[in-house]
Amino acid sequence: MAQETAGGALVVTQAGPQALVQDQGRFGVRHLGVTQGGALDWVSLGWANWLLGNAPTAAGLEVAVGGLTLEAQSRLTLALAGADLGARLDDTPIAPYTHFVIEAGQQLVFERPRHGLRAYLALPGGIAATPVMGSLASVMREQLGGLDGQGRALAKGDRLVARHAECRTRRLDTPPDPVAAGAPLALVTGAQIAHFDGSSLFDAFNRAWQVDSRADRMGVRLTGPVLRCRLGGMISEGIPLGAVQVPPDGQPIVLLNDRQTVGGYPRLGALSPLACARLAQCQPGDSVRFSAVTPQRARRDYLAQLARWQ
User: Fold this and answer.
1) Where in this chain does the record put each Carboxyltransferase domain (predicted)?
2) 126 within some domain
3) Could you tell me whether strands 219-223 and 290-293 are parallel, antiparallel, or unpaired per DSSP bridges?
4) Does one domain contain both 143 and 192?
């Protein structure tokens, strides 16, 4: 067991392009027009929490791209998972899927992506802040969550305070690959898939797609063969996590955690939660493929991942 000073904290000395406080998301509020938010790669956040003995739902830090520097105000045990952003403790490299001790005055630096796009940092017990609608998930567009309740990204001078003074560390013998390049993205078909022509359906599941530079926490655009749908106008309907919408240009958009709550474009279906986590780690230019799965298979894989954290 590792012990820390109560109220141990990290101070942001360089903010980087985007670092957000995230947990598993905000649920039961979509009827109010509020989206779920939460960690894009919820699997990596779960592993970071597991390494410290936290609940999988504990709030951690999502670091996109890098460029972030944190300085310890007191001794803390931290855990890192997800993308390799060239993290180092002063001059010592820190590998993903490990826990480590940072002493007062030391700096934790995230440089730039080497493998994957988003790293996740866990503190003992999670990050201390006041939940909004039951969650600390930062949604910048809706100005909800985070350290101040307004959903903003971390800024220089912000303090990340650990909820607990103690943690029970664990080791992961075989670290997962958050990207799993080459493995297809599981897609549960449905919605308006029958309205796409045959050649489009063949291309959707047999051709490669490239991750476009137009990608953020709301969604990821993919480029590749043009998909054609015979469906005309649609009444807007609820949009689930991972929904694969196809706008008139025929290039799919996979909607992620900060998506709108309703939409009116036809859909091939939705990626599984595990596939969404992997897509969130893909960089612009990466190649991905879809693989059709049943809802039962997607649910079974999801529950199997949750069981690994028991």
Assistant:
1) 31-309
2) yes
3) unpaired
4) no
Residue where a domain stops, chosen among 132, 167, 202: 167
Are 120 and 234 within one domain? Answer: no
- Tell me the pTM: 0.95
Query: At a CB cut-off of 8 Å and minimum separation 6, what does 257 contact?
Result: 25, 35, 36, 37, 38, 39, 40, 137, 217, 241
Calpha distance 27→23 (Å, rounded): 11
Residues 4 and 124 sit within 8 Å (Cβ to Cβ): yes
DSSP 174-195: S---SS-TTSPEEEEE-TTGGG
Smallest CA-to-CA distance from 94 within 106, 110, 114, 76 is with: 110
Provide the 10 A C-beta neighbour count for residue 278.
24
User: How many Å apart are CA 17 and CA 119, to the nearest integer?
Assistant: 13
**pLDDT for 242-295, tens place per residue?**
999 999 999 999 999 999 999 999 999 999 999 999 999 999 999 999 999 999
196 CB burial (10 A radius; 0-12, 13-18, 19+): buried
- Amino acid 300 reads R
Phi and psi torsions of 209, nearest 5°:
-120, 145
